[in-house]
């Protein structure tokens, strides 16, 4: 997947409209420290815990999306994304275990305010609006992580050798993940054509940009955990 693909179509319009909020998300200090291998491990562990809790609600959001789509191809596409998230959960737990975090440790943790704010915003958007509204709330995470992963893999400032976060970076440049991202962007495009996206751009941009801002807050939550521990 070429990184320029993120600049085209309806997704590209929404991404462009997010402006500085988008750049703050994909170039957040948390991301830059991941690339350099300098991110405090306490920050990453906090992120891993909350990301698992986040994924549980993200799966619910995709289940809601399936119920809001009208054609079998659309429903299959959203169901494939839902199944991918469900399949990722045990893999995420195995990865957490490599960082000394057992499932019981994660289950015992409360959701951080940033996790609650983000996931409930996505779900509320889906309940209030239609499939297009919900996709606008979902795509900053789905496609944003791919853009971040590819950007880091192509950046001369990224260090993979002896970087404890190398496998995380490589995961979001993985061909299988990128194939899912292309499918999600195609679903956004198709749904937008069916549901009059161009006449709804102000509302869709607000949803997309708000979700982007909540993504940045999610990164910052990890960094804040280090400051709190001091």
From TrEMBL:
Pfam families: TENA_THI-4 (PF03070)
InterPro entries according to UniProt: Haem_Oase-like_multi-hlx, Thiaminase-2/PQQC, Thiamine_Salvage_TenA
Alphabetized CDD domains for the sequence: TenA_C_ScTHI20-like (cd19367)
Domain Thiaminase-2/PQQC: 21-224
A GO cellular component annotation in the UniProt record: cytosol
Name the UniProt record assigns to this protein: Transcriptional activator
């Amino acid at each position: 997947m070429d990184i320029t693909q993120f600049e085209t179509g309806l997704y590209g319009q929404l991404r462009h409209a997010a402006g500085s909020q988008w750049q703050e998300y994909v170039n957040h200090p948390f991301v830059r420290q991941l690339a350099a291998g300098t991110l405090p491990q306490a920050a990453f562990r906090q992120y891993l815990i909350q990301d698992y809790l986040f994924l549980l609600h993200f799966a619910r959001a995709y289940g809601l999306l399936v119920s809001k789509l009208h054609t079998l191809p659309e429903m299959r596409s959203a169901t494939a994304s839902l199944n991918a998230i469900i399949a990722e959960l045990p893999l995420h737990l195995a990865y957490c275990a490599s960082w000394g975090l057992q499932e019981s440790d994660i289950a015992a943790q409360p959701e951080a305010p940033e996790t609650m704010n983000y996931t409930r915003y996505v779900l509320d958007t889906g309940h209030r609006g239609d499939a297009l509204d919900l996709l606008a709330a979902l795509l900053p995470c789905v496609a944003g992580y791919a853009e971040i992963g590819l950007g880091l893999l192509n950046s001369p400032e990224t260090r993979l050798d002896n970087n404890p976060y190398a496998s995380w970076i490589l995961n979001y440049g993985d061909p299988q993940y990128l194939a899912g991202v292309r499918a999600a962007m195609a679903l956004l495009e198709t749904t937008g054509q069916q549901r009059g996206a161009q006449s709804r751009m102000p509302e869709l941009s607000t949803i997309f940009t708000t979700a982007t801002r909540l993504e940045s807050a999610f990164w910052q939550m990890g960094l804040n955990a280090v400051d709190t521990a001091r």
